[in-house]
Specification:
The structure is a homodimer. In chain A, helix 3 packs parallel to helix 4. Chain A has 6 helices and 14 strands. In chain A, strands 1, 2, 3, 4, 5, 6, 7 and 8 form an 8-stranded antiparallel β-sheet that branches. In chain A, strands 10-11-12-13-14 form a 5-stranded mixed β-sheet, sandwiched between helices. Chain A is about 25% helix and about 40% strand. Chain A starts with a strand and ends in a 5-residue tail after the last helix. At the A-B interface, strand 1, strand 2, strand 3, strand 4 and strand 6 of A face strand 1, strand 2, strand 3, strand 4 and strand 8 of B. Strand 9 of chain A pairs antiparallel with strand 3 of chain B. The structure holds a DNA duplex.
Chain lengths: ~250, ~250
DNA sequence: GCGCTTAGCCGCTCA
DNA sequence: TGAGCGGTTAAGCGC
């Protein structure tokens, strides 16, 4: 059910907004306003025509006419108040922790709209690093011939290694998997894991590619790099398997 | 100017959307649809009632009823097409680089709205230079150990220096503060102040960072650079101070 | 264009 | 509560 007012008087708009907030509906306002943000940082946006969205969970989103990212926002569970002043509507949103405020002052309201959205749809994301690990765990030959993977998500002294295992020659190895280009940070991450061990182990970094500086450090530290063909790996797994993995993570959810 | 249709027939909605895309307006659609994303990753969102926003710059934003982040999106400069199929409206958005697609299939349209937003407002992030100076004036140790600041906004022969003071060793200093990366211009500005003095003084440039060429000139002119941690400095202002500021701003609010 | 760093990063997990 | 870490991270800047 959708309610809407076009070019409402400010007092009417204020009533409409308060009713929408009270009944926890999606609220969309188009009008001329300015915004002040105060919290971890601060910002100030002077007057202009924009789009304000307040969701039923108390999130606030402010969009200008361009860009896909909001200019200001607040996450869910904000306390939101709307009040009428002389020739102005003031919407104040308070986030509890960290303490942050958004103050929106409307001069003009072009449209207010409220709606209840019924959405039980399911959102599924493509192969994540987690799923990639799942695949590699059942196909260690894609990392190295003769490699046996022993543990997954192994908690080490200095972080959580994707895999630990034993290579063809009986050396213990730690494996770090990246879904994207491995950079200096990835190499350092793997190196950290290794340095925190008492004995020297082999380290294998698996990624679709590696940056030049990343490779330099990797070679200096005598680590191995294994190029992953993400697409080929994805094809080792059926959609069914992905859904099973998801089910494991999101267990109870419908 | 705002146009709107409530519960339009799909063919009417399709016409409305195409007209909005053609004339490069902000487009808002509320309806039941599913979304497929294909690109660097992939995702699939099954049927449900949601909010679709298409901006005049070709950005696409899809929001569910909860959360402040979009479930799917595309950045500006996407090519967007809308077509009518049997009992469905299909909106396809293509991002050129990297190649990515969003396919939105509407079963039902509850509302379509288009608007032109006029927004020449200015957005300013973080503590203003003024506030930054305020903080540094009460915490000169963040500029240099043992520094005593004597004056603020001191009018000199060739401009207004942010601070003048005396360093640990008794040298007179002029301090210039920048909120953003200091460049060649900032260095020259500080140098100007110093050259206009009869005696040679020390010059300290404070900024979160400095460009390479800026640093070269700075060193050549024998000036000091002090890296500012804007975030840490901001945190020297307590929340209490923020709340006082808010109170001042929002005075009447309950 | 690559590679690196920052962000009101966000959001998740786990000690 | 904090640390670690992945992200369709995005976005900026230097090389």
């Amino acid at each position: 059910m959708i309610n809407i007012m076009l070019n409402p008087a400010l007092n009417k708009a204020c009533g409409f907004i308060n009713e929408s907030l009270r009944s926890k509906k999606l609220l969309i306002c188009i009008g001329a306003f300015n915004v002040e943000y105060l919290g971890r940082s601060s910002s100030s946006l002077s007057q202009g025509e924009r789009l304000l969205i307040v969701k039923e969970d108390g999130s606030v989103i402010i969009h200008r006419s361009y860009g896909y990212k909001p200019v200001n926002w607040q996450p869910p569970r904000c306390r939101i108040k709307c009040s009428l002043e002389v020739e102005k509507i003031i919407i104040l949103s308070e986030r509890r922790k960290p303490k942050e405020f958004l103050r929106i002052v409307f001069d003009t309201m072009h449209a207010v709209l409220s709606a209840s959205l019924t959405d039980s749809g399911r959102f599924v994301m493509g192969p994540t690093e987690d799923i990639l690990c799942e695949i590699l765990f059942s196909h260690p030959e894609y990392i190295e011939q003769g490699l046996r993977l022993v543990s997954r998500e192994k908690a080490l002294a200095s972080g959580v290694a994707d895999f630990t295992g034993v290579d063809e020659k009986g050396n213990f190895v730690i494996v770090e998997v990246k879904r994207h280009v491995a950079g200096v940070d990835s190499v350092k991450q793997l190196d950290q894991y290794l340095r925190a061990q008492s004995k020297p182990l082999r380290g294998i970094l698996c990624a679709p590619s590696i940056t030049k500086t990343g490779r330099v450090i990797l070679m200096k530290k005598n680590l191995s790099f294994r190029k992953l063909n993400i697409k080929a790996l994805s094809e080792l797994i059926t959609l069914r398997t992905i859904e099973e993995t998801l089910d494991k993570h999101f267990d109870g959810s419908p």
